[in-house]
Design a protein that fits this description.
Strand content of chain B: 35-45%
Oligomer: heterodimer
CATH superfamily of chain A: Thiolase/Chalcone synthase
Largest interface: A-B, 38 and 46 residues
Shape of chain B: globular
Strand order of the largest sheet of chain B: 1-10-9-6-7-8
Number of domains of chain B: 1
Number of helices of chain A: 12
Radius of gyration of chain A: 20 Å
Distance between the termini of chain A: 18 Å
Strand content of chain A: 15-25%
Distance between the termini of chain B: 20 Å
CATH topology of chain A: Peroxisomal Thiolase, Chain A, domain 1
Number of strands of chain B: 10
Radius of gyration of chain B: 17 Å
Shape of chain A: globular
Chain lengths: 387, 148
């Protein structure tokens, strides 16, 4: 693979846009990224479009119908919550392979006020629906139990999960792109309505709408187009699926495929967890963030509770170390499924290039950034970017 | 529910999932891979997701006793589902896990003192959860703490 760089990024504030269509949301992010890259739609040679809920509706082509029908190859990608990051990886491979010099990835989703995700069964007769009768397949319970495994093995407390939510909400106050920007106290989180133990309301990410875009280029194109601007290199791009593990078919195992992806990504980038300046990881629930601290090697196995108690994951400006989800994370920033994976990469890129878009939350001296996404079912992507 | 001796006939009860058998008494069945021994709590399967071997499955009966691995207390669910209830992952001695509701427990106490409940012995029970379009009772399997 050749070296691949992110030349431009664009993102809309996550929120709710009932008056807009999915292609319109995607087009807004794409136009911003094209402008940021300093190129023209005619320069783009390949486009990977990530969207989950309208994956049969040719969203990529319809975005081009809004911003320029140049006739380039378009692929529409769906991979659960890893939809956007998988689209980014397709664009990365298109450039890295040498087939194209300029590729675009968009992640976009419109969920509105959609409530609980997951659950199901029953086929044509709802009398055979299994949700609530053969346990729960709803996301808060599934990820709640991922946290309970940690609790069982290491004695982790409800407070540890709650502290993650407090941290990420505090981070979100500095991010104008975040769907929610309110601070919450430990008491607020612990006393909030329980959704599925141990996840209270503030430990669950909201649903919403959003879009993000990245333009990827080869090294030759970077030299032609960057004009001396600092740009991030895609040092690792990894995608894994869930391997057979003992209980995976009963309770989705989000850890093993993340660990495999992290190992590969660190090898590919030639860095270790200690080199990572900031991490955007898949905190669909506070319980997920806690187990991923260990899965990504940010702390040792069984040490996530201690990591949290000692300021791990907190922005250095707030006295923390090894910052995680300085964007506010999915918990505050929001989780429009298909947009999430590209948005995480945008956040990392802004810190690395120090182009001012990270604003007050800029992580000082950021050199290596990691973006991790899990799509349940399961797909895991990890991207490491460097400057 | 009271144990039913009724055969599954045109008017009799039906299991919610195919790997639950109602006769001669309610029990779960699985499939065992003839190559690597992996067991699936499923009624049909083409090949083994652990070793990849195909067409070598033996039907096996699964134990009606197991141990609780982890759980969550669900407070928000779909319309018609009574909350709070406990969803649990149960490890069976055959080396396979199944998911279902854990009944005859106090969800509030499980939240207050979760460590007390990890690993508790449980046993299979059943409940009629719905009536289907053809008038059959739909029977679900559940777990409850083992008395002895």
């Amino acid at each position: 693979m050749r070296n691949v760089y992110v030349l431009g990024t664009g993102m809309i504030k996550f929120g709710r846009y009932p008056e807009k269509t999915v292609p319109e949301l995607g087009a807004e992010a794409a136009l911003e990224a094209i402008e940021d890259a300093g190129i023209n739609i005619k320069d783009i040679e390949m486009f990977a479009s990530g969207n989950l809920y309208q994956s049969n509706a040719m969203i990529g082509q319809r975005i081009l119908q809004q911003i320029g029908q140049t006739g380039i190859p378009v692929i529409n990608v769906a991979n659960a919550c890893a939809t956007g990051s998988t689209a980014f990886r397709e664009a990365y491979m298109a450039v890295g392979s040498g087939m194209y010099d300029v590729a675009m990835a968009v992640g976009v989703e419109q969920m509105g006020k959609q409530g609980l995700l997951g659950g199901g069964g029953g086929g044509s007769d709802p009398a055979y629906a299994t949700e609530g009768r053969i346990g729960s397949g709803l996301m808060p319970a599934v990820f709640g139990q991922a946290g309970m495994e940690h609790m069982r093995k290491y004695g982790t407390k409800l407070e540890h999960f709650a502290k993650i939510s407090v941290k990420s909400h505090k981070h979100a106050t500095k991010n104008p792109y975040s769907q929610y920007r309110n601070e919450v106290t430990l008491e607020d989180v612990m006393n909030a309505r329980m959704v599925a133990y141990p996840n209270t309301l503030y430990m669950c990410c909201p649903t919403g709408d959003g879009a993000a875009c990245a333009i990827l280029v080869s090294e030759d194109k970077l030299k032609q187009l960057a004009g001396g601007r600092k740009r991030a290199k895609v040092a690792a791009s990894v995608l894994t699926s869930d391997p057979y593990t003992e209980r995976d078919l009963t309770l989705p195992d989000v850890s093993t495929l993340t660990r495999r992806a992290a190992k590969k990504a660190y090898e590919m980038a030639g860095v270790g967890p200690g080199d990572v300046s900031l991490t955007e990881l898949h905190d669909c629930f506070a319980t997920a963030e806690l187990v991923h601290y260990e899965n990504l090697g940010l702390c040792g196995d069984g040490e996530a509770g201690k990591f949290i108690d000692e300021g791990g994951g907190v922005h250095p400006n707030l006295g923390g170390k090894r910052p995680v989800n300085v964007s506010g994370g999915l918990l505050s920033k929001g989780h429009p499924l298909g947009a999430t994976g590209v948005a995480n990469i945008c956040e990392v890129v802004w810190h690395l290039t120090e182009d001012g878009r990270a604003k007050e939350r800029q992580v000082p001296n950021a050199k290596v950034g990691m973006a991790h996404v899990i799509g349940l079912g399961s797909a895991c992507t990890i991207h490491i970017l460097t400057v | 529910m009271a144990e039913q001796q009724t055969q599954t006939t045109d008017t009799g009860p039906r299991p919610i999932l195919p790997f639950l058998k109602l006769t001669p008494k309610p029990h779960l069945t699985g499939l065992k891979c003839g190559n690597c021994g992996a067991i699936y709590a499923e009624a049909k399967r083409l090949a083994c997701s652990k070793c990849g071997a195909s067409g070598q499955f033996q039907p096996v009966d699964l134990s009606d006793k197991g141990k609780l691995w982890v759980f969550s207390v669900v407070h928000q669910s779909f319309p018609g589902i009574k909350t709070p209830y406990v969803t649990a992952v149960i490890d069976l001695p055959e080396g396979v896990s199944v998911r279902s509701n854990l009944v005859d427990v106090d969800p509030d106490e499980m939240e207050k003192n979760p460590q007390k409940f990890f690993g508790i012995p449980v046993e299979l029970t059943t409940a009629v959860v719905a009536k289907d379009r053809e008038g059959h009772d739909v029977v679900a399997f559940q777990w409850r703490p083992r008395k002895n």
